[in-house]
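User: Is it possible to get a 3D structure for a protein together with its bound compound? The compound here is NAP. I've pasted both below.
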Amino acid sequence: MKNNVNRQWVLANHPTGMVTTADFNQVDTEITPPGDGEILVKVTHVAFEPAMRGWIAEGDSYVKGVQIGEVMRAQTVGEVIESNNADYKPGDRVSGFFGWQEYATVNPVGGMFPTQVLPDAVTAEMALSALGITGLTAWGGLLDIGQPKEGDMVVVSGAAGATGNIAGQIAKIKGCKVIGIAGGPEKCQWLVDELGFDGAIDYKEGDVSKKLKELCPDGINVFFDNVGGEILEAALNNLAQFAKVVICGGITGYNEEELPSGPRNYMNLVLTSSNMEGFLLGQFGPKLGQAAAELGQWVAEGKLKYTVDVQEGFENVPQTFLRLFEGKNLGKQLCKIA
Ligand SMILES: NC(=O)c1ccc[n+]([C@@H]2O[C@H](COP(=O)([O-])OP(=O)(O)OC[C@H]3O[C@@H](n4cnc5c(N)ncnc54)[C@H](OP(=O)(O)O)[C@@H]3O)[C@@H](O)[C@H]2O)c1
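Assistant: Yes, that's possible. Here is the predicted structure of the complex:
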């Protein structure tokens, strides 16, 4: 705790178009002592999600938007250094939404994701990837919404990103054939060689729809989409009968000032009697307990690998966020700040 100073990154403006580092300002404030029931946390790891682009747009979306001058919201891990709450003690490692700042004074109870004390065996990297929001999203989207059966052909877009790589691995655990779509030969090689995907398509090279036709001759049973746009259209061209299209996200549109018209070939949903369904993690409610237990067991058994891309330094936090939109991250994007 240097001179009681708390460095923070706050929102400078609501970006239109591609977010830049100039959309955030670094400010120094004083550390706020914890009040009744509160804890003071030294933040060690910050996690990044494409959805944060929506949180800083003008107005509210599925969550309240971040206001100009407010500390940028983010999922994080840190260490409790002072506590006025009997359930948290100094030295506890905790995960919670502490934001882009070095110290957070918070009421740890309440909210959709209350502050959780991490067991000794759970590292910050695990808590912010396979065992956190990312893993739970992949579990809920794939298993609760997609409901693949053993032997099904599952295709995942954004497959080398945080959620995509976990969704693909869960599909493999469930006995499916899995094809990943990702940007660049290294990411595609990694999916096949390291994660055991049955195939991968580099969407930056050639015709994705044609490649899907080659790799999925009987059609796609479950498409787990993180991306939207032309990749969604390519998948819709190749659906099996009674397929399930799971819309987890649509990163192609997050930095666009104006969105293009919807999938031109959505009639393929009709022609294949298929179902397209979106979801938000929060809707899985009590099922998330089962999800957390299964994810933890798969990680412990070595069936589910978690991959994190860790940048370093508080000053690099905004640049690290931009890596998501530049396709620079492999697995979950984190920044270690202490
Ligand atoms: N529904 C929910 O409750 C929920 C919860 C969490 C996350 N999500 C969504 O899940 C998706 C994945 O999130 P994540 O945290 O796992 O992020 P991520 O996949 O790690 O995000 C970044 C990756 O997206 C790809 N990408 C970036 N810009 C792209 C573009 N214009 N076109 C195609 N691909 C692009 C890049 O990979 P390439 O190099 O392969 O292009 C990049 O590495 C996001 O859309 C997110 O909003 C939804």
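Residues 5-128+307-336 form a domain with the Quinone Oxidoreductase; Chain A, domain 1 fold (CATH 3.90.180.10). The two ends are 11 Å apart (CA to CA).
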